[in-house]
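Posted in: Structural Biology > Protein-Ligand Complexes

Title: Requesting predicted complex, adenosine-5'-triphosphate in pocket

I'd be grateful if someone could produce the 3D structure tokens for the following input. Sequence and ligand are given below.
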Amino acid sequence: MNTRIVEIWVGIFIAAGAAALFMLAMKVSNLATYTNDEGYTITAKFEDASGLKERSPVAMAGVRLGRVTDIRFDNLTLEAIVTMRIESKYNTLPKDTSASIYTAGLLGEKYVGLEPGGDEASLKQGDRIKLTQGSMVLEKLIGQFVSQFLSDDSSDKAK
Amino acid sequence: MLDPIQNLGKSGLRFFERLGRACILFARILGGLHTLIPRLGLVIYQTYSVGVLSLLIIVVSGLFVGMVLALQGYNTLVDFGAEESLGILVALSLVRELGPVVSALLFAGRAGSALTAEIGLMKATEQLSAMEMMAIDPVHRVMAPRFVAGFFAMPLLAAIFSAVGVLGGYFVAVGVVGVDEGAFWSQMQDAVDLRDDIYNGVIKSVVFGVVVTWIAIFEGSDAIPTSEGVSRATTRTVVHSALAILGLDFVLTALMFGEI
Amino acid sequence: MADNNILVKTRDLSFKRGDRVIFDGVDIDIRRGSVTAIMGPSGTGKTTLLRLIGGQLKPDKGSVIVDGENVHELRRSQLYQLRKRMGMLFQNGALLTDLNVYDNVAFPLREHTNLSENLIHKLVLMKLEAVGLRGARNLMPSELSGGMARRVALARAIALDPMMIMYDEPFTGQDPISMGVLVRLIRLLNDALGLTSIIVSHDIQDTLSIADEIYLLAGGKVVAKGSGDELKQSSSEWAQQFLKGQPDGPVPFHFPAEDYADDLLDGKPGRAQTRM
Ligand SMILES: Nc1ncnc2c1ncn2[C@@H]1O[C@H](COP(=O)(O)OP(=O)(O)OP(=O)(O)O)[C@@H](O)[C@H]1O
Ligand SMILES: [Mg+2]
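-- Reply #1 --
Done. Output follows.
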């Protein structure tokens, strides 16, 4: 076999492999929409974060603003602390924005939906969203309203 | 009669003996990598024979696997009105599992068996001995270039498999069953993560490439130097590679994607 | 090294294949610059002896000293350095089947030297001319006859101008003409380049004509040694039987086996071959 032809073929092969990897990165995965900027993180406490995962979307008005980066359990309040990273271009979210956990479609993923409040000041790195509504679990739906106020009270007192 | 127990003990010993030899060979190949720098031509030639020659089967299989995934996925998803998620299904199955695993299985059958047969025959015809007597270490001259070629070719083949598979899925989803093109791509991009899915898939295929090439080279160099010995070694390469790929896939998947 | 005159020295060399003893205390001295022949019945271990000298097999006991170095105590890299100075012609040629004749002969040159392709070209053609196969340089090994392949292998073995060459049955498969050429070539190479040659051969006439010293191996031991004339004169039954090719004598024609009559009467029959 002619060395030149072998070399040409190997070159084509490596180029094809690189093109495939490039396509997987740019067209198939979220690299194209993946902004390098770190954005800012905000947290919210939910009484029930079931169904929510890391990387679940965070959206307002149907537009994705960021993703969930961390879900933890708070030993003190016995609630879930959800950390979200919001892209830095969305920097005008009012301080009293509220967060709820919704389901996309009938069987879709859980996501965090934000509803704007009326505050002049906007959310910054490390801020906490105070008004939250956890996952809708029917059995708990009724008790939810009661405990909501209680938890808000206690977190206000803690400050 | 102690025979069955003795046999068991014997084959156990043989297994560890072979494992030991395989590890020594692996270490010697790694130790000989630096000798490849002036022999880059050999690596290129071997990349041709393990990579380029496997290209056709990889592309054709990838295309069909992607198309079947889209067709099957559509039939299931459409019942839930979720056919727009078809892109997610196709891409995630390919990138995480089918791309690395199926292409590694094909690679073992296409390139691994050829490697074993080639090295086994070189041993049977005393070519390896002759090299040793010419003061040329066959581990450096014959095995190391093949190992490096397998190491590089496998991830590229797996990536080509996944990419072609996604395209095949796209043709069926958008062209045949009429899923909205924008939804197909945007849902896919939303769900497939570069680090979690693509990188991990590539890591899997690197591991498979190393293991398959290692098994193939070892079986060849450890073959009984007769025509029957070489043919058995070739069969063993395919069987052991397939078992190793599937077993390792489980372990790697559990490590990478496992929820606590 | 007291005896600088000896290039290869084996002492008390013993080697077993499984339970079968191939060598049992073999002492051989090969003088520098000489042509030494190793003769013996088929299956006595002549090829095995060459592999022991080349360090490809490890003896169970005893030592092999080549040029003052104990072959089996060297580290791998040292052994490879030593092997650069040894040429070996394999019994079946052992050409690299994916290279053509030219590249086979050029192979050790390309691997071990930094010579320009131009110079390599000249060297390869010279070596091929010496074995009469310059015209066959573009053939692949699969296109050669057994005798031709062995001559190419010879050209390859002398490519690096080693200090010693081990020939494993170089004359088998050669017609009388190329046989005569080969015999003279081996002698010529040996004397002109100051090589040391070890020849394994069954061909009594030709071997006697070029060998300075002959070792006769049988049953794992050296049974006779000396120059051709000495052997012819020798009173050793082994030597007489071997040189004259008589079927009866101390050298057994048969591979060790149980008694023939017993075997015929109550030996276990083999099974019918169904595998091929
Ligand atoms: N790989 C092996 N495994 C087991 N036994 C072997 C092996 N190779 C050779 N033998 C045995 O070792 C003995 C010596 O073999 P060797 O090839 O050295 O003989 P030889 O003297 O070169 O014979 P010939 O003149 O026929 O070439 C033989 O009896 C053979 O049965
Ligand atoms: Mg022999």
